[in-house]
Amino acid sequence: MLAIDGLRVVHRGTGTRVEAVAGLDLAVAPGRAVALVGESGSGKSTVINVVLGLLGRAEVSGTVTVDGVDVLRAPQHVLRRLRGRRVGYVGQQPFAAFDPLFAVDAQLREAWRAHASGGAGAMDAAIADSLDLAGLDLSGLAAGLPPHRLSGGMLQRAQVAAALLHRPPLVLADEPTSALDPILARRLAEALRALRDRGTAILLATHDLGLAACLADEVVVMRAGRVVERGPVVDVFGRPRDAYTQALLAAHPSRGLRVTAELDRPESAAAPARVSCTNPSPARSGRTEASP
Amino acid sequence: MSGVPVDIRGLTVQRRLPDEPPILRAVSLSIPAGSRHGLIGASGSGKSTLLRALLGLVPVGSGGIRVGDLGVPAPDRASRQLLARTVAWIPQDAVGSLDPCMTAREAVAEGLRLHGIAAGRDASRRAADHLVRVGIPADAFDRRPGELSGGQAQRVAVARALAAEPGLVLADEPTSALDPLVQARLLNLLFDHCTASGATVLLVAHTLGIVRRFCDVVTVLHDGSIVETGPVSDVLDRPAHEVTRALIAAELQP
Predict the structure, then answer these.
(1) How far apart are CA B98 and CA B152, in angstroms?
(2) Dihedral pair phi/psi, residue B206, rounded to 5°
(3) CB contact under 8 A, A253 and B210
(4) Neighboring chain B residues of A272 at a CB cutoff of 8 Å
(5) How many angstroms from the chain centroid is the CA of residue A17?
(6) Torsion angle of alpha carbons B172, B176, B178, B181, nearest 10°?
(7) Can you list the domains of chain A with their CATH numbers?
(8) Residue ranges in chain B whose pLDDT is less than 50
(9) Model pTM?
């Protein structure tokens, strides 16, 4: 469903050069889920944006194939057909995902009409199904409300519903549970897992190792754009070989939030503050992760 | 300042519309000085409202709050100032809570000046010391929130909160937006400082592992009411209420 070969991404600013992805090979087959994990700035979201064909002016090399389409070389109209219908995307900025001026349920209807034909009955059924999968009720009090009247968690679930409207065979999920409380997060993880079991391919980017363990078959641990360890989830989380993977696991709340020597370096190395990159600066909002 | 106790008696907080259910209903909670108290519950259960009530930021419907010797909300200007000095708040979204026009150093120095702890250049000097203590590199002292990484901005918020040596620290999911490595470093830092100063900590957390690691006592909120409270090992290992059991069952572990 998705094949990435020798992917390299370089962001160039005035006098700066950041290698966001330094050589990545990855394949996600139908019915499989792969998780990219690592700290902020490790390149997870960049990979997702490349697959969407949304990386703007960054220097990208390698090959990315989605559903037989060469994403890095395909013309825009082909990419537009791919996005929405063949590829569903859940981003990490729920507030940025919706037009602030229009009701969220109206935007779901628009998203359906953009890629499908059929009567109002088919549309309403598709939207109701997707909302149900995402665990959100937009009837009653929430009907007809614009984004700012909904909580971050509700918008995040609305975004999941929009991504699943056309039952795309590939779902890209970038921190899909960041605005959800643990009970809702678990529900969404299980809903995505059920989709995977019915044949959907999923690429997940997250720093929540618990979510990765719940959803993914394979995990790819990234650090500063490089793959430091990869393999089946049970192996990587059960018997981590790399010191960085071990440090990530030791820092997890379920394993005591231990700070190991490996972590003793300034955060600025992980999340460069003054690099001007071609990514649009994300809107800051609520509980969502701020840096890509 | 060493830790102060918190006493909440029958606290009810109404929504603006009278026919809607209250956000908090008859909440009573006693937190001894110097203890580390965790507050858990689903979204909308009233956790953040309880913290805001302790800051005097929400109108109290009925019931009373005492922080040390002070009643909340404070009746006059002098006691409001004393309360502001006693209680520190660390928000979920540090980047959003810091003044976008103020450098890290100014953000910390402002608190020192407002509370009369230091003045002029002395405040700037002491602010720099506080930033060093939370691990902000010297070249970031004069950056504004937009030029700091999420983890650095959250460290500045911690430095600002701890600079006035508060007796009570309210932390509202202080690390939920941070990656796991930064989260572990920041929480260890925060609790090390509070242990050293003896400050009472009330921590809102979605992640039970954080409460297990850092808190002595935990309270579970559901729909504005306390459903369970007690020592962390009792409540999280032998939960008595179905809400607590649901929160425990939802934990995603690697």
Answers:
(1) 12
(2) -90, -20
(3) yes
(4) 149
(5) 24
(6) 100
(7) 2-270 (3.40.50.300)
(8) none
(9) 0.84
